[in-house]
Protein backbone atom coordinates (compact mmCIF):
# COMPACT_ATOMS: atom_id res chain seq x y z
CA UNK A 1 0.00 0.00 0.00
CA UNK A 2 2.91 2.32 0.67
CA UNK A 3 3.97 2.14 -2.98
CA UNK A 4 0.45 2.96 -4.18
CA UNK A 5 0.38 5.97 -1.86
CA UNK A 6 3.77 7.10 -3.15
CA UNK A 7 2.66 6.90 -6.78
CA UNK A 8 -0.59 8.77 -6.07
CA UNK A 9 1.30 11.45 -4.13
CA UNK A 10 3.71 12.02 -7.02
CA UNK A 11 0.91 12.07 -9.61
CA UNK A 12 -1.29 14.46 -7.61
CA UNK A 13 1.62 16.81 -6.99
CA UNK A 14 2.57 16.75 -10.69
CA UNK A 15 -1.00 17.47 -11.78
CA UNK A 16 -1.38 20.46 -9.48
CA UNK A 17 2.03 21.93 -10.35
CA UNK A 18 1.23 21.54 -14.06
CA UNK A 19 -2.29 22.97 -13.80
CA UNK A 20 -1.12 25.75 -11.49
CA UNK A 21 1.57 26.74 -13.98
CA UNK A 22 -1.04 26.78 -16.74
CA UNK A 23 -3.18 29.18 -14.73
CA UNK A 24 -0.27 31.47 -13.86
CA UNK A 25 0.89 31.58 -17.47
CA UNK A 26 -2.59 32.63 -18.60
CA UNK A 27 -3.57 29.51 -20.52
CA UNK A 28 -6.51 30.36 -22.76
CA UNK A 29 -8.66 27.43 -21.60
CA UNK A 30 -8.31 28.44 -17.95
CA UNK A 31 -9.05 32.10 -18.76
CA UNK A 32 -12.21 31.07 -20.62
CA UNK A 33 -13.28 28.83 -17.75
CA UNK A 34 -12.87 31.62 -15.19
CA UNK A 35 -14.83 33.99 -17.43
CA UNK A 36 -17.59 31.35 -17.74
CA UNK A 37 -17.63 30.97 -13.95
CA UNK A 38 -17.72 34.79 -13.57
CA UNK A 39 -14.53 34.82 -11.51
CA UNK A 40 -11.92 37.61 -11.69
CA UNK A 41 -8.55 37.18 -13.40
CA UNK A 42 -6.62 37.82 -10.18
CA UNK A 43 -8.30 34.73 -8.68
CA UNK A 44 -7.05 32.67 -11.63
CA UNK A 45 -3.47 33.74 -10.91
CA UNK A 46 -3.86 33.28 -7.14
CA UNK A 47 -5.35 29.82 -7.61
CA UNK A 48 -2.49 28.90 -9.90
CA UNK A 49 0.11 29.99 -7.35
CA UNK A 50 -1.65 28.14 -4.55
CA UNK A 51 -1.92 24.98 -6.66
CA UNK A 52 1.77 25.12 -7.51
CA UNK A 53 2.77 25.73 -3.89
CA UNK A 54 0.53 22.89 -2.67
CA UNK A 55 1.84 20.52 -5.33
CA UNK A 56 5.45 21.36 -4.46
CA UNK A 57 4.76 20.94 -0.74
CA UNK A 58 3.26 17.55 -1.47
CA UNK A 59 6.30 16.57 -3.52
CA UNK A 60 8.78 17.90 -0.96
CA UNK A 61 6.87 15.98 1.68
CA UNK A 62 8.50 12.87 0.28
CA UNK A 63 11.81 14.17 1.64
CA UNK A 64 10.80 16.35 4.58
CA UNK A 65 8.21 14.83 6.85
CA UNK A 66 5.27 17.10 7.60
CA UNK A 67 5.35 19.24 4.45
CA UNK A 68 2.97 16.93 2.61
CA UNK A 69 0.29 17.52 5.22
CA UNK A 70 0.40 21.30 4.61
CA UNK A 71 0.14 20.68 0.88
CA UNK A 72 -2.79 18.31 1.38
CA UNK A 73 -4.65 20.81 3.56
CA UNK A 74 -4.19 23.50 0.92
CA UNK A 75 -5.28 21.12 -1.85
CA UNK A 76 -8.33 20.12 0.21
CA UNK A 77 -9.42 23.77 0.35
CA UNK A 78 -8.71 24.31 -3.36
CA UNK A 79 -10.71 21.22 -4.32
CA UNK A 80 -13.68 22.23 -2.15
CA UNK A 81 -13.67 25.70 -3.73
CA UNK A 82 -13.47 24.24 -7.23
CA UNK A 83 -16.30 21.77 -6.59
CA UNK A 84 -18.52 24.52 -5.17
CA UNK A 85 -17.75 26.67 -8.22
CA UNK A 86 -18.78 23.88 -10.60
CA UNK A 87 -21.99 23.29 -8.62
CA UNK A 88 -22.76 27.03 -8.46
CA UNK A 89 -22.65 27.41 -12.25
CA UNK A 90 -24.42 24.06 -12.77
CA UNK A 91 -21.61 22.41 -14.74
CA UNK A 92 -22.33 18.88 -15.86
CA UNK A 93 -20.64 15.87 -14.27
CA UNK A 94 -18.17 15.52 -17.15
CA UNK A 95 -16.72 18.95 -16.32
CA UNK A 96 -16.68 18.21 -12.57
CA UNK A 97 -15.20 14.72 -12.75
CA UNK A 98 -11.48 15.69 -12.89
CA UNK A 99 -11.60 17.79 -9.71
CA UNK A 100 -13.74 15.18 -7.94
CA UNK A 101 -11.19 12.47 -8.76
CA UNK A 102 -8.35 14.70 -7.56
CA UNK A 103 -10.31 15.45 -4.39
CA UNK A 104 -10.72 11.72 -3.72
CA UNK A 105 -6.97 11.25 -4.19
CA UNK A 106 -6.26 14.14 -1.80
CA UNK A 107 -8.57 12.57 0.80
CA UNK A 108 -6.88 9.19 0.29
CA UNK A 109 -3.44 10.71 0.81
CA UNK A 110 -4.63 12.62 3.86
CA UNK A 111 -6.09 9.51 5.47
CA UNK A 112 -2.96 7.47 4.82
CA UNK A 113 -0.65 10.23 6.05
CA UNK A 114 -2.13 10.20 9.55
From TrEMBL:
Keyword Iron, does the record have it? no
Q: Does the keyword Transmembrane apply?
A: yes
A GO CC term assigned to this protein in UniProt: membrane
List residues traversing the bilayer: 6-21, 41-61, 67-84, 96-113
Top-level taxon of origin: Bacteria
Topology term for the membrane: Multi-pass membrane protein
Q: Where in the cell is it found?
A: Membrane
Q: Pfam families of this UniProt entry?
A: DoxX_2
Per UniProt, the keywords (alphabetical) are:
Membrane, Transmembrane, Transmembrane helix
Q: What is its main location?
A: membrane
> What's this protein's name?
DoxX family protein
Amino acid sequence: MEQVTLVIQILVSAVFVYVGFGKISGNRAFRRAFIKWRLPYWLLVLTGFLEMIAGLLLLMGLLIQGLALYGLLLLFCICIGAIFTHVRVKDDMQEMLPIIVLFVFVLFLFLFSL
